[in-house]
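Title: Request for sanity check on NADH dehydrogenase [ubiquinone] 1 beta subcomplex subunit 10 prediction

Description:
We are preparing a figure and want to confirm that the structure record we downloaded matches what your pipeline produces today. Could someone re-run it with the sequence below and paste the raw structure tokens into this thread? We only need the token string, no images.
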Amino acid sequence: MPEAEPRNIVEKFFATVGNMLETPVVWVREKIVEPNQKSYPWYHQKYRRVPTIDECYTDDDVCIFEANAQYKRDKQVESEILHILRERFENCTLYEAPDHLEKCTHLWREYEDAATNWFIKYGDLGAYHNAKSAYMKQKHRMIWERRHGPVGSGVKKDTDQAPAEN
């Protein structure tokens, strides 16, 4: 919508003064600030991915430190995602008060899946854990699943015993 033409001398004066103040500011913003801004669609800083703990040599302290820092950042991000999913479910139950069992079940399932995955990765590690302890937990879980089937399924593969002959 184009600006209306000033009706009298006072409006022309204020429009001129306003343009004198606004024009340099707009020029600096468009020519200097915006071309030099980092533009990324995230609300948090996006760090460069470093090698994980399984890719580090045992005597490479810098690599191990970076892997631990990345592990802690990933845990914080995943914990915040879990917190947001929990808040969404709670807000849905408050908003959809009598019918929340039907209308909010998809949010509950998403939250439960995310909480299960978070616990698989970070749960039962204790207060002072690092990337190596999480990696060892993952390794032990894979060995368990290879020997006994998926955790929590109650299925145990009987590969060691020969089939009974009748």
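Thanks, this matches our download. Residues 61-95 form the longest helix (35 residues).
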